[in-house]
From TrEMBL, chains A, B:
Lineage: Bacteria, Bacillati, Bacillota, Bacilli, Bacillales
Residue runs in coiled coils: none
Gene Ontology MF term list: ATP binding; fructokinase activity; metal ion binding
Organism annotation: Alkalihalobacillus trypoxylicola
Co-factor(s): Mg(2+)
Recorded family membership: Belongs to the ROK (NagC/XylR) family.
Protein name listed in UniProt: fructokinase
Keyword Magnesium: yes
Length: 287, 287
């Protein structure tokens, strides 16, 4: 069996399955403190003969195999998990190869293998929720270098009618500071789910996301863009992105028809856990 | 022998050499019309027994091997070269494998193999001259997907004291429209080379390039950034980038010491031709 963990800030999804993406058992475990959460995680997997483990994790994390902190969750505001060596914990418990990457890179891998980008060697997975993150597959490889990307914090140009100052503690009005769920709530005074009929909310959201997609497309040139997270449940966001993206790009690059190019996850909520299964599969191959 | 072509808008550099980067002969040929230029190119290489050919080309080009226009220079404003099938021309003349990519991706490959990023599996090569372009190596692979990146046209935020409108025919005040050589000349009324003592020129240039580097770093996380092209000869540009980049990033990601992270090309003017040699070497391997 391959073991997969989607390690999130509120819950861990654990699953066992195989390299075809088939999941045979799964469990959700609340993210409390490592001693509690990881004990439950290990207990779940101990029911199976685990050949390798894949972890797609919230971050920031250290994915540089030459670094002494490789396999750690690093400077997270969730203090109990700061500097937590999650890879080492799983290796000690199971003695098998462990693949480790960000939750969004795992989701991109899941979508490229089994989902909306199935069969493509390149895609971008963006999630817009409590924060904004993105992962990508480039020529079949997970996008990483010095570290993992932090695409949610790119700079955007403010909409001329938007006076919201932005709430990113680092950058104020970067993409995440202007367009993540908490920014929507702060700006409009209601949670996103309560604003679903307010066209102007999603039009503005699309304005910022279209700018981000322009930057991502010019820099990465992905073959498919998958937009997940809570905000992607608002279909008006896609309409607004389709409207603004051509205004920004001005036909400088030619993109496929936008409604088939920028899409919802093909795997629904399972992009991340399916990708973690593939991280396990790759870890086994590379061993 | 491996054959390498750096196809530029004003000249073609052709070289023969080997996979260690050694160049044994080279020639420069003016870029006029394909019938003239390519005749000279072929004549040069016919002196040797060519095993494979690598081409790093000005663009836009079609590098999608599934496309009917693969191997063409596509919508260039140099009309004689529009839709020119450069790969097919070389294949017909020599009957050997041909590797084909952008000039900047080739330069990134050259720097990652023999230059400032030697030994690294990831780097970003930016050139700032008549235009702005960038290429990258990600996990040892050339960065490409739907097409090649067009990083020079990302959006930047205008400096509050800069009233120059920008001269990109597509986007006005995108990065290239604000910071390429012609924008510098338009804004200040003199060519860059004549402005070398004007601190404010290079400070503003660094402001825009630092923003671009922030976006590239957050999206690609390269292990090394190489800044080439005419503008990189102004050392004040590096100083300004070192000043502004931390202001933009605000310690959100940790970067290496900037003077060793953002550097001039290790190969001087040979990044592109050396990379084209490696494109030839890879084409031979993949055959």
């Amino acid at each position: 069996m391959l073991a997969a963990i989607e390690a999130g800030g509120t819950k861990f999804v654990c699953a066992v399955g195989d390299e075809t993406g088939r999941i045979v058992d799964r469990i959700k475990i609340p993210t409390t403190i490592p001693e509690e959460t990881m004990t439950e995680v290990i207990k779940f997997f101990k029911k199976y003969t685990v050949k390798s483990i894949g972890i797609g994790s919230f971050g920031p994390i250290d994915i540089n195999e030459d670094s002494p902190a490789y396999g750690h969750i690093t400077s997270t505001p969730k203090l109990a998990w700061k500097d937590y060596p999650i890879v080492e914990t799983m290796k000690k418990a199971f003695g098998v190869p462990v693949g480790f990457n960000t939750d969004v890179n795992a989701a991109a891998l899941g979508e490229a293998t089994f989902g909306a980008a199935k069969g493509l060697d390149s895609c971008l997975y963006i999630t817009v929720g409590t924060g904004i993150g993105a992962g990508a597959i480039v020529q079949g490889q997970l996008l990483q270098g010095l570290s993992h990307p932090e695409m949610g914090h790119i700079l955007v140009r403010r909409h001329p009618n938007d006076s919201y100052e932005g709430n990113c503690p680092y950058h104020g009005d970067c993409l995440e500071g202007m367009a993540a769920g908490p920014a929507i709530e702060n700006r409009w005074g209601l949670k996103g789910a309560e604003l679903s009929e307010r066209e102007e909310v999603w039009d503005l959201e699309g304005y910022y996301l279209a700018q981000a997609i322009m930057q991502y497309s010019l820099i990465l040139s992905p073959k498919k863009i998958i937009l997940g997270g809570g905000v992607s449940n608002q279909k008006q966001v896609f309409e607004a992105i389709h409207k603004y993206l051509p205004e920004f790009i001005q036909n400088y690059i030619s993109l496929p028809e936008l409604s088939s190019y920028i899409v919802k996850p093909g795997l629904g909520d399972d992009s991340g856990i399916s990708g973690a299964l593939m991280l396990a599969s790759r870890a086994l191959e590379n061993n």
